[in-house]
Write a structure and sequence with these properties.
Elements lengths: L2 H4 L2 H13 L5 H8 L3 H7 L2 H10 L28 H50 L2 H15 L1
Helix pairs in contact: 2-4, 2-5, 3-4, 5-6, 6-7
Length: 152
């Protein structure tokens, strides 16, 4: 038996509460802590821990942004089947952040494609300007007309 297992659950809960109140522990740290052992999983799964996280964190999903119907508050479910309602808030937050990150990646991809197209158009405009300045605009059009026929 190690010295950590001698400490009572109440003391571990108090340590977690202090960590949350001082912002030393966030929801990610609590999740990591819950993977250490069964005891920490049980303690970290307690609704009081997650309610403290909501109160002491900059939780952005209060108000119109949060659909409370998404929170599982069914008291008829057994406690092992019923996920903590406050922990559910963080799950909802995680899902929304994941969707937002995916949208951000898609927007960046579209912006890159757009900037590449703008660069291509600018190159063609410079070629056309040079052709007009040198009086070779007909050869410019013939070149791109034949290029379009070959690619299509």
């Amino acid at each position: 038996m190690n010295m950590w297992s001698v400490l009572p659950d109440e003391l571990w809960s108090t340590i977690m509460e202090i960590g949350i109140e001082t912002k030393s522990l966030d929801h990610k740290a609590i999740c990591r802590l819950s993977t250490a052992c069964r005891r920490f999983r049980r303690l970290a799964g307690d609704d009081s821990v997650w309610s403290l996280l909501v109160l002491h964190s900059d939780f952005p999903y209060f108000g119109n942004d949060l659909d409370l119907s998404e929170i599982n508050c069914d008291s008829s479910s057994s406690s092992s089947d019923n996920i903590s309602k406050f922990k559910s808030l963080f799950k909802i937050r995680y899902k929304k952040e994941r969707v937002l990150a995916e949208h951000g990646r898609k927007i960046q991809e579209i912006m890159l494609q757009t900037s590449q197209e703008v660069q291509r158009i600018n190159e063609r405009m410079a070629e056309f300007r040079d052709a007009v300045m040198s009086g070779n605009e007909e050869s410019f059009f013939e070149h791109y007309a034949s290029a379009n026929q070959n690619s299509g």
